[in-house]
Design brief:
This protein is an alpha/beta fold. It has a single domain (4-183), classed as sialyltransferase cstii, chain A. The chain has nine helices and seven strands, in the order αβαβαβαββαβααβαα. Strand 1 (12-16), helix 2 and strand 2 form a beta-alpha-beta unit. The protein is globular and about 40 Å long.
């Protein structure tokens, strides 16, 4: 579960998305800090074998299934589950609720990081580009990315200087993280 410091606001969070770049991005992000807050999105929470502090999705019924699959794999249970306020959740599964800025589950994870008072957010596997296919279907472009770009652009001023990305269009929009940025 999330430690006391993380509940009050942590300096750095890593958001894990589902794009093919995820594993390369995670390797790069690990150079920036020892114990970041980990916010997983959708399938990334199922596949990420280490600690997951928060698990978020625009699709809470998908998370219900993935939580069981994570448990079957023998991974440590994830921390709190989160869904947008405006979407119904499965009965019998406890979800926190977070406001949605629109857009993808990745942007919902950024919103959660801000609600948790995280100072800086590193996006891994969230390029928001069609060529940033899901890692579980690498040959199929993720064309839905295009429709979500407007919400990311609309919220640029909120994220500018606080959110960076290692890949794709979000790296172009927000910039790539550096050790100096993370340490500042």
């Amino acid at each position: 579960m999330v430690g006391e410091f993380a509940q009050l606001g942590q300096r750095l969070a890593i958001v894990l998305g589902g794009a093919i770049s995820l594993h390369d991005d995670i390797r790069k992000a690990r150079e920036f800090c020892d114990d970041p807050l980990i916010i997983a999105v959708n399938d990334a929470g199922f596949d990420y074998e280490w600690k997951v502090d928060h698990w978020v999705s625009m699709h809470p019924f998908l998370l219900e299934r993935l939580v069981k699959q994570r448990e079957k794999r023998g991974f440590q249970p994830a921390g709190k589950l989160w869904a947008p306020r405006h979407i119904s959740t499965p009965e019998g599964v406890e979800f926190g609720r977070v406001s949605s800025w629109g857009g993808s589950s990745g942007l919902l994870a950024v919103t959660l990081a801000f609600d948790l008072k995280v100072e800086k957010v590193i996006l891994c596997g969230i390029p928001m580009s069609p060529e940033g296919a899901h890692y579980f279907a690498p040959k199929r472009p993720w064309n839905d990315a295009v429709q979500y770009k407007a919400a990311w652009s609309r919220n640029f001023d909120r994220m500018n200087g606080h959110v960076k990305s290692f890949s794709g269009w979000t790296a172009q929009l927000l910039g790539m993280p550096t050790k100096d940025w993370a340490d500042a």
